[in-house]
Amino acid sequence: SHMLLHTPPARWSKFNPEYVKAGKVDDNLHSPLGEPLGTRLPFPCGRAKGPSGATLKAGQSVKWSLYGGATHNGGHCEISLSYDDKTFVSIQTILGNCMKDGKLDYEVTIPANAPSGPATFAWTWINWSGNREYYMNCADVDIEGNPNGVLTGPKIVEANMPGRPTIPEFQGPNTGAQL
Prior knowledge:
Layout: E1 3-7, H1 17-22, E2 54-57, E3 61-68, E4 75-82, E5 89-94, E6 105-109, E7 117-127, E8 135-144
Parallel strand pairs: 2-8
Antiparallel strand pairs: 1-3, 3-6, 4-5, 4-7, 7-8
């Protein structure tokens, strides 16, 4: 299989007890959202919102991890937050070195200005080598944050899906820095 957001547990994931209990586990979550040949799962997130799988506190560092066996030599990962599943604000970028050398465990700081309320914690990945694909898993979370907070920042990179740019393999002089 490819890769999947393990912690916090992705929507419809076998790692989210709420989906297991409801019998709504999707074994295709490790598939790309889109590719030049057509979309496999819809953008964004691949699946609709569901029950919260974690509570995250603004200003604090949280662990996130991946699961799977096909890292495609790593690549470009972003962690983002969204409160509407339309606008995804990037809060962490790992350019080129995501999953390099088998690393699957990371940390990210939830911005101190993140508003309180239900949110989406999203992981996106553009693979280093192989077919030009775009992966995205989303975890439904509750943010304990600033009641008057406003989350701002860069939007996530969207690529390798119909209607979006194709990012070539990160080989030779192409390190992905143009992202």
